[in-house]
């Protein structure tokens, strides 16, 4: 059974020889630490660790186009104030060791949004790869899963406005927020449709990151009013072309948003942060097999050591046995996970995913 067959069958609760063997990825600092612990410097990490081929998207570009020129406004020694490639004014450490301090965002009102909207023109020829038919042809008879990126609704609004400004705008100027989300949905539909017409795909994805450790950044009421209609426009297109695995990448506690995503046609949750959320097996007992999950392995267990790793993988075994689940660490592997602990985790997980 190849990687594509294994993914498709797992996500449809069908028999497989084993569950896909994936991971989320690694922080750059983690890899730097591992070099000092014996990791070779001249290897592809997924290949070196024996991972299946994963997380590949057709190269359609829904992003800001063109991006802003990066401008350094002030040098403050260890840090600098810049306008970054997204047009955000921020202070960041030069060594990149912490989250930047955001100072000003490019979308402040309707006028600034109308200017920004030009950078999200759905009709730009650079949205698709230059040699589109070749890109399609080389992926027709693939043996690995391939998806399509559908962008973001809340997440991109937040990036352009900031959490505080967006939180006020949903009440003070809801028409502006609706227009932004509608435009991002239009952009996605315009760009994914020719790909869906040309190529059978295995999944689709959204990125939101719209929750923190105790709940969502947008109320369920506003999610239903503002986001579900736009999601449905996109997922209806996906379903029309046979794409019925649609995941959303959202950190934090997602329990209040989960039934709304399912209603909107988004049926796979990723990366299911273990410390923030209920056990996904228990949640599936409540909501049913419409729920698919990727992730859910608590990264803190990999820090704690072998006994914790054994217990954490065993805790996810009922979900593995049921199907519709691909176990991965619930975010990028942090640098306080030793290389030995990570290798041990892979050995334990490799045995767990076998049938």
Layout of strands and helices, then pairs:
Layout: H1 3-11, H2 28-35, H3 45-48, E1 56-57, E2 71-76, E3 79-83, E4 89-93, E5 101-104, H4 110-117, H5 132-137, E6 146-149, H6 154-161, H7 163-172, H8 174-198, E7 203-207, E8 211-212, E9 215-216, H9 220-240, E10 246-249, H10 258-263, E11 268-270, H11 280-287, E12 292-297, H12 299-304, H13 306-315, H14 317-322, E13 325-329, H15 339-353
Parallel strand pairs: 1-6, 6-7, 7-10, 10-11, 11-12, 12-13
Antiparallel strand pairs: 2-3, 3-4, 4-5, 8-9
Helix pairs in contact: 6-7, 7-8, 8-9, 13-15
In short:
Helices cover 42% and strands 15% of the residues. With 355 residues, the protein is α/β, with parallel strands linked by helices. It has two domains: 3-66 and 107-353, Alpha-Beta Barrel (TIM Barrel); 69-105, no CATH class.
Commentary on this structure:
With 355 residues, the chain is of the alpha/beta class. The protein folds into 2 domains: 3-66 and 107-353, Alpha-Beta Barrel (TIM Barrel); 69-105, no CATH class. 42% of the residues lie in helices and 15% in strands. The chain has 15 helices and 13 strands. It has helices spanning 3-11, 28-35, 45-48, 110-117, 132-137, 154-161, 163-172, 174-198, 220-240, 258-263, 280-287, 299-304, 306-315, 317-322, 339-353, and strands spanning 56-57, 71-76, 79-83, 89-93, 101-104, 146-149, 203-207, 211-212, 215-216, 246-249, 268-270, 292-297, 325-329. Strands 1-6-7-10-11-12-13 form a 7-stranded parallel beta sheet. Strands 2-3-4-5 form a 4-stranded antiparallel beta sheet, with no helix packed on it. α6 crosses α7 and α13 (306-315) packs parallel to α15 (339-353). It starts with a helix and ends with a helix. The model has no long low-confidence stretch (mean pLDDT 97).
